[in-house]
User: Which sequence fits this backbone?
C-alpha cells in the first residue's frame, strides 16, 4: 500500500484548483433580492418570510408551513409542540447527522436507534418494531440523501401505537411517493435550507403540518413564545401588543434568508434536473469499479438526488475508506462522509451505553461511505474531474 500511496501523492492532481464539496449555485437575481431586502428596511422576520412560507407550503402540498432558522430548530419545535418530554423515547436512525438526535435530547426525550437498510441507508420498519417500548412517543424517520423511507409502513406502525411521526426531510425537498411530497405523510415535516442543501438560504429551515393549531403553536414557540410576529407588531396596520404565552425559543427566520429562498425555490426543479444528470453520469462512470453505487429509486418514488454516496469496497482495496478520502482530497476533490453512525460517537456512547455492534448495517455503511460533489453549480468539466479522481484513486488502491 505504501508504494501506491506515494504514487498518488507524487503525481499531478487531476485538478489545479480545489473543488469545494456542496458549493451552492447563487445567481445574480438572488443577490439582487437580498440587496432589495436590505434597502426595504425589513431585515428581520417580515413579509418575505411570510411569502416564503406560503410558496414552500404550496410546493410540497402542505396546508401550513412555518419558517425557522434551521432544520435542527424545526425538529426541536415539532418535538416540543407534539408534547414529547422527559421520560419519552423517540425512535430514529443511526445513519443521520447529530442534529436529529440532539433535537430529541433537547426535548427531554431519549433517542432510540433502529438500524438502517444496508442498501439504501434508510431506517427500516422491521427495526422500528423491534425498538418499540411502552415509553415510545414518536418515530423520526430520515429520508437519507433524498430517498424516501417506507412511509406507508411507518405511518401504519404509528397508528397502531398512537405515535407521532416527525419526518426529517433535510435532504428531501423534491422527494415524493406516488406524487405526494415527503414531509406530508407524518404529523410534521422538517426541511433544511443550509448552504449545501437543495434550496439554500445560508441557514434556515421549515416545519410543515396539516393542522392549523399545530402550525400556530410552532410559530409561537419559535419566537420567544410571543403571541404576535415581530413584523406585525411594527407594521402599518398599527402597533400590536404581544403576550408571552409559552417559554419559547429564538428560532425565527429573517427576511434576508427568505429573500434568497424565494428565488432558489423558483429554480428547484431545474436544479433537481441538473443533479439528476450528474447522478446518472456518476452511476455510469463507476459501474464495475471497486465500489457500490446507490440503488435506483423504487417505482413510484422520486429521489431528490441530494447526496451521491459511494460505498468503497474495502475488501477489494488495499486501503481504508479514510485513506481513499485523503487521496481524493489530494486530487483537489472535496468530499464528505454521510455519516459516521450516531452510536459510534463518544458522547452518545457514554451517555446511553451504545456500542459498536449494536447496528451492523449502519456500521457497514459508516466505514465505507464517501459523498462526492453534487451541485447544480458543477460544470461538465467539474464532473469529469471528479470521475477521473475516483478512477485514479480506486485504481491505485485496487488489489
Assistant:
Amino acid at each position: 500500500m505504501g508504494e501506491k500511496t506515494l504514487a498518488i501523492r507524487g503525481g499531478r492532481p487531476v485538478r489545479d484548483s480545489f473543488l469545494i464539496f456542496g458549493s451552492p449555485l447563487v445567481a445574480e437575481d438572488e443577490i439582487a433580492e437580498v440587496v432589495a431586502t436590505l434597502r426595504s428596511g425589513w431585515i428581520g422576520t417580515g413579509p418575505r418570510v411570510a411569502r416564503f412560507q406560503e410558496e414552500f407550503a404550496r410546493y410540497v402540498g402542505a396546508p401550513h408551513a412555518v419558517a425557522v432558522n434551521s432544520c435542527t430548530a424545526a425538529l426541536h419545535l415539532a418535538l416540543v409542540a407534539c408534547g414529547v418530554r422527559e421520560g419519552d423515547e423517540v425512535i430514529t436512525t443511526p445513519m443521520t447527522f447529530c442534529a436529529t438526535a440532539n433535537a430529541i435530547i433537547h426535548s427531554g426525550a431519549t433517542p432510540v436507534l433502529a438500524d438502517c437498510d444496508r442498501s439504501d441507508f434508510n431506517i427500516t420498519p422491521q427495526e422500528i418494531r423491534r425498538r418499540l417500548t411502552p415509553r415510545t412517543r414518536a418515530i423520526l424517520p430520515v429520508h437519507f440523501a433524498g430517498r424516501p423511507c417506507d412511509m406507508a409502513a411507518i405511518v401504519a406502525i404509528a397508528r397502531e401505537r398512537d405515535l407521532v411521526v416527525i419526518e426529517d426531510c433535510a435532504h428531501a425537498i423534491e422527494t415524493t411517493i406516488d406524487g405526494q411530497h415527503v414531509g406530508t405523510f407524518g404529523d410534521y415535516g422538517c426541511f433544511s435550507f443550509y448552504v449545501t442543501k437543495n434550496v439554500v438560504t445560508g441557514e434556515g429551515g421549515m416545519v410543515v403540518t396539516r393542522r392549523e393549531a399545530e402550525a400556530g403553536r410552532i410559530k409561537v414557540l419559535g419566537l420567544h413564545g410571543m403571541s404576535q410576529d415581530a413584523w406585525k407588531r411594527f407594521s402599518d396596520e398599527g402597533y400590536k401588543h404581544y403576550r408571552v404565552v409559552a417559554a419559547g425559543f429564538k428560532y425565527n427566520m429573517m427576511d434576508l434568508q427568505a429573500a434568497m429562498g424565494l428565488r432558489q425555490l423558483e429554480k428547484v426543479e431545474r436544479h433537481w434536473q441538473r443533479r439528476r444528470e450528474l447522478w446518472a453520469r456518476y452511476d455510469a462512470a463507476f459501474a464495475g469499479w471497486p465500489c457500490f453505487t446507490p440503488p435506483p429509486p423504487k417505482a413510484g418514488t422520486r429521489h431528490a438526488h441530494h447526496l451521491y454516496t459511494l460505498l468503497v469496497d474495502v475488501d477489494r482495496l488495499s486501503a481504508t475508506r479514510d485513506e481513499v478520502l485523503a487521496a481524493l482530497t489530494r486530487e483537489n476533490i472535496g468530499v464528505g462522509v454521510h455519516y459516521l453512525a450516531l452510536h459510534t460517537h463518544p458522547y452518545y456512547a457514554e451517555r446511553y451505553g451504545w456500542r459498536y455492534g449494536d447496528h451492523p448495517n449502519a456500521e457497514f455503511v459508516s466505514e465505507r461511505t464517501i459523498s462526492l460533489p453534487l451541485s447544480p453549480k458543477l460544470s461538465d468539466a467539474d464532473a469529469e474531474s471528479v470521475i477521473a479522481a475516483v478512477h485514479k484513486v480506486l485504481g491505485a488502491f485496487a488489489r
